[in-house]
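Quarterly update from the structural biology core.
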Amino acid sequence: MAVPSLQEISTQLESSNLRDRMVALASLRHIAAEDALPLIKKVLDDQSLQLRSMAIFALGVKQTEESYSILVRILETDPDYGIRADAAGALGYLGDVRAVEPLMRIFYEDTDWLVRFSAAVSLGNLKDSRAREILIKALDSEEVILQQAAIAALGEIKDIESVDLILRFAQSDDWLVRQRLAEALGHLPSPKSISALKYLEKDSHNHVAEAARISLKRLEEAD
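Predicted structure, tokenized:
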């Protein structure tokens, strides 16, 4: 199938039919980032939240000099929590370490758990140790999903010193928390990590046990 021209995509993005606009936006995956950016910007304020969400994701994978500033603006000012969460997630895909500070700030200031969850996940994706303090505080969140994100992110940033702090989750009633712990420990080589993983390898939930086995193998190979 032939890739549509930029003009064809631009015209289709102005269609009154949402499906047409979504198909046009999806076709930008074949277009270079600099050429795609002006077309993505056309629908950032679309009436459809679904299309806006797609456009924000596109900004995260189409890396241009302007992508970062647009995403931060959306993160900090958009009234819709879902869109703010999308922007937080896209900043993690973008891989620009300048995003660490706005993501930490939004984690502290935003009242919606979904936005804070996306921010924590992206802080892990960015693998920047500046996020350590905020992720450790997130371990004490009343939202289990934030605990999951914080555990995973501490593994991503390879914060060995956090091992003692996350081991308490080995007894969590939530198997997803235990799975995230098993995955995180695979990035945190220490005798305590190995001991905990051998314990989690016998977990009653298959996903947890499998994650522990994979992490043990990773640590053995790294050693």
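The chain has 14 helices and no strands.
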